[in-house]
C-alpha cells in the first residue's frame, strides 16, 4: 500500500489555494450559508486504517450521496425487482433534468439522478414501516455510528423550494411509476438528502462497498453481486453529465452531492471522501474532483 497520509498531505497543500474552487450551491437556501473554504479529506483502507486532513470530522449535507444508500437499502428489501422501475443507463444530463423522463414514459435512466432516486424513495416508503426512522437506522448500522442524523433545517429548506423535484415526482406519478402519495415520497426524499455526515463518517459507511457487502463490523448487508451492481452504477452514473469526465480523470466509482461532498472507492482497497463546498457548473465539487485526480495519480491506484 502507498503512504496514504503522505499523499493526502501533499494533495492538501497543492489544492488548498486553488484559484477557482467553484460556487457554493444556493438553490437550496439553507446550503448557501456554508463557507466555501471548508476542506477535508478522509481515506479508509480495507484494513480499516484511516488517513485524514483538514475538516474531515465536520458534518455537512451529503445530498445526492444519500442516493447510493437508499438504493442499497431498496436492493436489500426487494432485490432485482428495483430494475422493473428504474433503468441502469447513464443519462448524460444534469441531475434534475426531466425531458428524458417524459420521452421514456416515466422510467428514469438510473437511480442516481433525482427522478430515479425519487422512485427508490417510493420503494422505501412502501417497504418500510417508518421510512425516515428506518432509513436512518440502516445508515447508523452500516456505519456503526449512532450519532449520524438528518439536518431538519436543510430538509425543510428544500421542501419549500425543491420545485423541480415536485415536477419530477408528479411526472412519475402520471406515468404510474410512483405508488405512494407525491408529498409523502418527497418528504422522505428531502430528509434522505439532508443526512448530515463528515468525511470520516462517509468512509465508515461506504466501507460496505469496498468490503463485498459487509460493513465495518463484518455484518453482511448486501450480496457480492448487489455491491458489484451499485459500484458499476456509481462509475457510470455517479456524476450525472460529468460521469465520463470523472472516469477519465479519476478512474474510480463514486458519488457527488451538491453539499460539496464526493465519495469514491477502489473495491477491496480503499474508500475516500472529500468535502469542499464550491461546485463546478455540473454540480460536482471543483476541488473534490482535483483532489481525487491527484490521489489516483500519486498512488497509482484506480480501477484502470
Ligand atoms: N445533486 C444533488 O446533490 C441534488 C440533491 C438535491 N437534494 C436535489 O434534489 O436537488
TrEMBL record:
<keyword id="KW-0378">Hydrolase</keyword>
<feature type="binding site">
    <location>
        <position position="158"/>
    </location>
    <ligand>
        <name>substrate</name>
    </ligand>
</feature>
<dbReference type="GO" id="GO:0004359">
    <property type="term" value="F:glutaminase activity"/>
</dbReference>
<keyword id="KW-0007">Acetylation</keyword>
<dbReference type="Pfam" id="PF04960">
    <property type="entry name" value="Glutaminase"/>
</dbReference>
<feature type="binding site">
    <location>
        <position position="189"/>
    </location>
    <ligand>
        <name>substrate</name>
    </ligand>
</feature>
<comment type="subunit">
    <text>Homotetramer.</text>
</comment>
<feature type="binding site">
    <location>
        <position position="114"/>
    </location>
    <ligand>
        <name>substrate</name>
    </ligand>
</feature>
<feature type="binding site">
    <location>
        <position position="165"/>
    </location>
    <ligand>
        <name>substrate</name>
    </ligand>
</feature>
<feature type="binding site">
    <location>
        <position position="258"/>
    </location>
    <ligand>
        <name>substrate</name>
    </ligand>
</feature>
<feature type="binding site">
    <location>
        <position position="240"/>
    </location>
    <ligand>
        <name>substrate</name>
    </ligand>
</feature>
<dbReference type="GO" id="GO:0006537">
    <property type="term" value="P:glutamate biosynthetic process"/>
</dbReference>
<dbReference type="InterPro" id="IPR012338">
    <property type="entry name" value="Beta-lactam/transpept-like"/>
</dbReference>
<dbReference type="GO" id="GO:0006543">
    <property type="term" value="P:L-glutamine catabolic process"/>
</dbReference>
<protein>
    <recommendedName>
        <fullName>Glutaminase</fullName>
        <ecNumber>3.5.1.2</ecNumber>
    </recommendedName>
</protein>
<feature type="binding site">
    <location>
        <position position="64"/>
    </location>
    <ligand>
        <name>substrate</name>
    </ligand>
</feature>
<dbReference type="InterPro" id="IPR015868">
    <property type="entry name" value="Glutaminase"/>
</dbReference>
<comment type="similarity">
    <text>Belongs to the glutaminase family.</text>
</comment>
Amino acid at each position: 500500500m502507498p503512504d496514504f497520509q503522505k499523499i493526502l498531505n501533499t494533495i492538501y497543500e497543492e489544492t488548498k489555494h486553488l484559484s477557482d474552487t467553484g460556487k457554493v450551491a444556493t438553490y437550496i437556501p439553507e446550503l448557501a450559508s456554508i463557507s466555501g473554504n471548508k476542506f477535508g479529506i478522509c481515506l479508509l483502507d480495507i484494513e480499516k486504517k484511516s488517513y485524514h486532513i483538514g475538516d474531515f470530522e465536520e458534518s455537512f449535507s451529503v445530498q445526492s450521496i444519500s442516493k447510493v444508500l437508499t438504493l442499497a437499502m431498496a436492493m436489500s428489501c426487494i432485490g432485482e425487482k428495483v430494475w422493473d422501475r428504474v433503468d441502469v443507463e447513464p443519462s448524460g444530463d444534469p441531475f434534475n433534468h426531466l425531458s428524458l423522463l417524459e420521452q421514456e414514459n416515466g422510467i428514469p435512466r438510473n437511480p442516481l439522478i433525482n427522478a430515479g432516486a425519487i422512485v427508490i424513495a417510493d420503494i422505501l416508503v412502501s417497504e418500510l414501516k417508518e421510512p425516515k426512522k428506518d432509513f436512518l437506522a440502516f445508515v447508523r448500522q452500516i456505519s456503526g455510528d449512532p450519532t449520524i442524523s438528518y439536518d431538519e433545517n436543510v430538509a425543510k429548506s428544500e421542501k419549500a423550494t425543491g420545485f423541480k423535484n415536485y415536477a419530477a415526482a408528479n411526472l412519475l406519478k402520471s406515468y404510474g411509476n410512483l405508488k405512494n402519495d407525491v408529498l409523502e415520497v418527497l418528504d422522505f426524499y428531502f430528509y434522505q438528502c439532508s443526512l448530515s455526515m463528515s468525511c470520516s463518517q462517509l468512509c465508515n459507511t461506504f466501507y460496505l462497498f469496498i468490503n463485498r457487502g459487509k460493513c465495518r463490523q463484518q455484518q453482511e448487508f448486501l450480496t457480492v453481486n448487489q455491491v458489484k451492481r451499485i459500484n458499476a452504477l456509481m462509475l457510470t452514473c455517479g456524476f450525472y453529465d460529468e460521469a465520463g469526465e470523472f472516469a477519465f480523470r479519476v478512474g474510480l466509482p463514486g458519488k457527488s452531492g451538491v453539499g460539496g461532498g464526493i465519495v469514491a472507492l477502489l473495491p477491496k482497497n480503499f474508500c475516500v471522501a472529500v468535502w469542499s463546498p464550491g461546485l463546478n457548473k455540473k454540480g460536482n465539487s471543483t476541488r473534490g474532483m482535483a483532489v481525487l485526480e491527484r490521489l489516483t495519480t500519486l498512488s497509482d491506484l484506480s480501477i484502470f
